[in-house]
């Protein structure tokens, strides 16, 4: 006879995720820092805790520590709306202030990729292809941007 654990027992990965989330929450409280906000936002996003994602984004946006951290937070905040099916709001968040830089850094590519993905998911293939093309031109081997560009042809 095979004994199965009760259904209320969390999966090991879920338990580990909860422990990590608690540690991040403690860090946030003790350090008075926003540098880990994007990670905690993503934890909350995976749990559909939309108000907590929004709260952390507002803190992060107010402090605006550095461009890569703010870009990551913005991507997660936007995708929290996409997760709820609100693609116009998600796209609006990532389009705000978007201008293709002449010398893109990693955080520019991440933001462009996230926006191109949202365009694709929102059935806006022309805009999606344009942005994936820009990524491919500036970073030919960036993630699967080249493949996605070709698929949208």
Write up this protein.
It is a single chain. This protein has 153 residues and is mainly alpha-helical. The protein has helices at 12-31, 37-46, 50-63, 67-83, 87-95, 106-121, 125-138, 145-151. Helix 2 (37-46) packs antiparallel against helix 3 (50-63), helix 6 (106-121) runs antiparallel to helix 7 (125-138) and helix 7 (125-138) runs antiparallel to helix 8. The N and C termini lie far apart (56 Å). 30% of the residues are buried.
Specify the helix fraction band. Answer: 55-70%
Largest sheet: none
Structure annotation, total helices: 8
Q: How many DSSP E strands?
A: 0
- Give average pLDDT, whole number: 88
Distance between the termini: 56 Å
Which descriptor suits the 3D outline? globular
Stretches where pLDDT is under 50 for at least 5 consecutive residues are 1-12
What are the main properties of this structure?
mainly alpha; single chain
How do you describe this structure in short?
The protein is an all-alpha fold and 153 residues long. 70% of the residues lie in helices and 0% in strands.
Give the topology, please.
Elements: H1 12-31, H2 37-46, H3 50-63, H4 67-83, H5 87-95, H6 106-121, H7 125-138, H8 145-151
Helix pairs in contact: 1-2, 2-3, 2-4, 3-4, 4-5, 4-6, 5-6, 6-7, 7-8
């Amino acid at each position: 006879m095979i004994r199965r654990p009760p259904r209320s027992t969390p999966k090991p990965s879920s338990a580990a995720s909860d422990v990590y989330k608690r540690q991040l929450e403690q860090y946030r409280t003790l350090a008075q820092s926003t540098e880990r906000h994007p990670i905690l936002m993503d934890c909350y996003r995976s749990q559909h805790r939309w108000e907590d994602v929004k709260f952390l984004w507002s803190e992060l946006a107010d402090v605006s520590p550095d461009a890569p951290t703010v870009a990551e937070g913005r991507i997660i905040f936007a995708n929290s709306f996409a997760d709820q099916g609100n693609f116009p709001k998600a796209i609006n968040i990532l389009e705000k202030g978007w201008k293709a830089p002449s010398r893109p850094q990693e955080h520019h590519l991440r933001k462009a990729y996230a926006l191109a993905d949202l365009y694709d998911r929102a059935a806006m293939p022309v805009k999606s292809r344009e942005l994936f093309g820009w990524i491919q031109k500036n970073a030919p081997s960036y993630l699967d941007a080249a493949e996605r560009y070709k698929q949208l042809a």
